[in-house]
Amino acid sequence: MSSPTPGRRCGVLLHPTALPGTPACGSFGEAAEAWIALLAAEGVGVWQLLPLAPTDGGGSPYSSPSGFALNPWLLDGQRLVEDGLLEQADLEDLPPGRNDLLDLAAAARRSDHLARLLLERWPEQPEYQRRAFEAWSRQEQFWLTDHCRFMVLRRMQAQKPWWQWPRPLAFRQAKALAELDRDQAEGLLQEALVQWQLQVQWLRLLGLARSLGVEIMGDLPFYVAHDSADVWSHRRLFSLRANGSLQSQSGVPPDYFSETGQLWGTPVYRWLWHRFSGFSWWLQRLERQLELFDCLRLDHFRALDASWCVPGGDATAEHGAWRPSPGRSLLEGLRRRVFKAGGGPILPLVAEDLGVITAGVEALRDDYQLPGMKILQFAFDGDPDNAYLPENYKGTNWVVYTGTHDNATCVGWWNSLGEEERSRVETCLGEAVHAPGWQLLRLALESPADLAVVPLQDLLHLDDGARFNTPGTTEGNWQWRLHGSISALHGPLLGLGQMARYYGRGSR
Q: Are the C-beta atoms of residues 356 and 370 closer than 8 Å to each other?
């Protein structure tokens, strides 16, 4: 882990699943290397991505069956060949997949095929590969064993959630787990080999980025999915009933945008048990993420101060209550673990502090000197004190975005505005709007914020056909992919680099 680079910088938000060059899904291969090299060549200092975890059935990386594992869809077959783990001919038999969007079913088929090939070729591997794998397995044992068990059991149980499995497996009876380890040894090995090579490939990309001066920002959801290896293997850390169902679930209360609030269906934490363990699970989770990234965006940061807890059987979030969270103790524990002493340097974290934020949340963020977030699409409601307007930023410790993965693209956002709203935007910009993504980008770059980030879709002037996610919907999300090659992005990245240098944000 490296400390975040100080000073004014700019970055691009692009998830690896959207990279081109491989059927069905982007990967940790050639296109990712070319993307990092292009960022470095144009002086763009930060690549931000979404969680690299396995996704849920709809493709969301924010509802993962693992808080520690990497997404098998991102495993690059060509890199496996180059590293001697597969033969070139093996790749000829991979199932086909679309190239124009993330093809969820094909991505799963292709990753399963690569996993089987890895297992089949494993007896042929030289001793140094075996030693490397064994050393890695021991190092990652705290999450790897139960992740592999969970994924194998999911397949055996036809993807049913863990609380519907046979009781000895659902509740982890020692005899049932021992039988699983014995009878499914090959399947467990296959899962572990995939995670090993995913980490090898990702750390190679991380090393390339660091050598070229590009910082990589990851993303960590606050909660983990109910149907996950984490909840299955650490039940008492989560608010569950004896039968595994939700006792208390997460969400946010009713507000201007929703009369019934948002219900997320993930279990809230039993913080008492986390305290008893010295926050061991949380700290292991955070430390692993900080090994994979240079810095980390903490999604739903406000829940580190207090979380909205809704009865497990409720269908809306209306009848929840705010419950305090021990965020200060957790962050202090992380700082001691990372820096091996109390105090010390600033944690490499970004606080996702969007929405209605209390004084307590702001104090937690500011006391640990964590950057907060500003979204320019939220800035033009006519209120001169709007906190998202750059002239209202207090200090420089912010990350400002034109929009995020949850927003419309800037073109889609502009197309949705009425005349009055458009007039306010043009007044603020001091010019007529003709390229909303680039014009909001200029506003971000000239703002006081230390870091300005733009989604690639806004650099490419794309409409909402390229939108990555629409919150509250389940269809058509997470599927956008870049068309063409990385080299075709030279023009937009050159323009970003030139603008960044003009506003004192270029890294060359």
A: no
Residues 307, 323 contacting (CB under 8 angstroms): yes
d(CA 85, CA 66): 25
Q: Which residues pair with 47 in a beta bridge?
A: 12, 216
Q: Both tokens of residue 57?
A: 């059935």
Dihedral over Cα of 87, 93, 98, 104: its sign = negative
Question: In 3D, which of 25, 171, 31 has the Cα closest to residue 108?
Answer: 25
What does the alpha-carbon distance between residue 343 and residue 212 come to, in Å, rounded to a whole number?
Answer: 30
pTM, two decimal places: 0.96
**CA atoms of 95 and 114, how far apart (whole Å):** 10
Are 33 and 204 within 8 A, CB to CB?
no
Known catalytic residue at 406? yes
Beta-strand ranges (E) seen in 312-351 are 321-324, 349-351
Contacts of 473 (CB under 8 A, 6+ apart): none
Asked about 294 being catalytic, the answer comes back as no
- Is 352 an active-site residue? yes
Query: Which run of H or E residues covers position 280?
Result: helix 280-292
Q: Are 458 and 440 in contact (CB under 8 A)?
A: yes
8 Å CB contact between 79 and 43: no
Rounded Cα gap, residues 327 and 306, in angstroms: 8
Q: Which of 314, 406, 446, 464 is catalytic?
A: 406
Q: What is the pLDDT of residues 115-147, one digit of tens each?
A: 999 999 999 999 999 999 999 999 999 999 999
Of the residues 140, 352, 353, 458, only one is catalytic, namely 352
What lies within 8 Å, CB to CB, of 308 at 6+ separation is 250, 251, 252, 253, 261, 317, 320, 321, 322
Please name which of 350, 252, 288 lies closest in space to residue 49, comparing C-alpha atoms.
Answer: 350
Q: Give the confidence band of 5 by pLDDT, cuts at 50, 70, 90.
A: very low
Catalytic pick among 42, 219, 299, 305: 299
| CA distance linking residue 251 with residue 266, whole number of Å | 8
